[in-house]
Design a protein that fits this description.
This protein has about 220 residues and is mainly beta. It has a single domain, classed as Beta Barrel (Porin). Helices cover about 10% and strands about 65% of the residues. It has one helix and ten strands, in the order αββββββββββ. An eight-stranded antiparallel β-barrel has the order 1-2-3-4-5-6-7-10. A two-stranded antiparallel ribbon has the order 8-9. It is elongated, with a radius of gyration of 33 Å.
């Protein structure tokens, strides 16, 4: 009886094998779906460090600066809106004349901005325009025959520019941007000179790079 059952089972298996092979051959091969790629979001607070170089073309004023950044982004689809503030120590200035005889030096020692940002995100890459308020702490020094006097003023103004920011690791990004800064004139030495000495409008072209940590 066992031999009959084994023989019958073997014959059935042999009969089914060609049909199963044909069925497998007829079925199309379907590749397993790829794992979903995580899409970065720019929404949230961030803090960072930045530095760069600024130059005023007409008066030869130039120099470097370095400081910190604080901001917040809000993303809807590919659109990114944000606000950002930065402040930097600076050494941006120029000297005209000979300090041993007579010279005038202007030097920005600190400066910063408070700006809005609007951009378009290509996943990890954000391209944006920016603009808002700018300020600079400037010191004007007059030197004659080895004697010098100084006066400092805060110049207010506006800034406009554009930049690119790249998320290179979770929570970390690097950026590069250009800013045009225009500061209003201020009157110096008003206590000694009636009406003071007008500095004139100060316009700076600046480029800066930075790194941000996103919360």
């Amino acid at each position: 009886m066992k031999k009959i059952l084994l023989t019958t089972t073997g014959l059935i298996a042999l009969g089914m094998a060609p049909a199963m092979a044909a069925d497998l051959a007829a079925r199309p091969y379907t590749k397993a779906p790829a794992a979903a790629i995580a899409i970065n979001t720019w929404t949230g607070f961030y803090i960072g460090a930045m530095g760069g170089y600024a130059q005023e073309n007409s008066d030869g004023i130039s120099g470097g600066f370095a400081g910190g950044t604080l901001g917040y982004n809000w993303q809807a689809g590919n659109l990114v809106l944000g606000v950002e503030a930065d402040a930097a120590w600076a050494d941006v200035g120029a000297t005209v004349g000979n300090p041993a005889l007579f010279a005038v030096e202007t030097r920005i020692r600190d400066m910063g901005t408070v700006r809005g940002r609007i951009g378009y995100a290509f996943d990890q890459v954000l391209v944006y325009g920016t603009g808002g308020y700018a300020w600079a702490d400037n010191r004007l020094t007059l030197s004659a025959l080895g004697v010098s006097v100084s006066d400092s003023k805060i110049h207010s103004g506006w800034t406009l520019g554009a930049g690119v920011e790249v998320m290179f690791a979770p929570k970390w990004s690097v950026k590069a941007e250009y800013l045009y800064r225009s500061f209003e004139s201020q009157n110096y030495f008003t206590a000694a000179v009636p009406g003071g000495l007008a500095s004139g409008t100060l316009n700076l072209n600046s480029v800066q790079v930075g790194v941000n940590y996103h919360f």
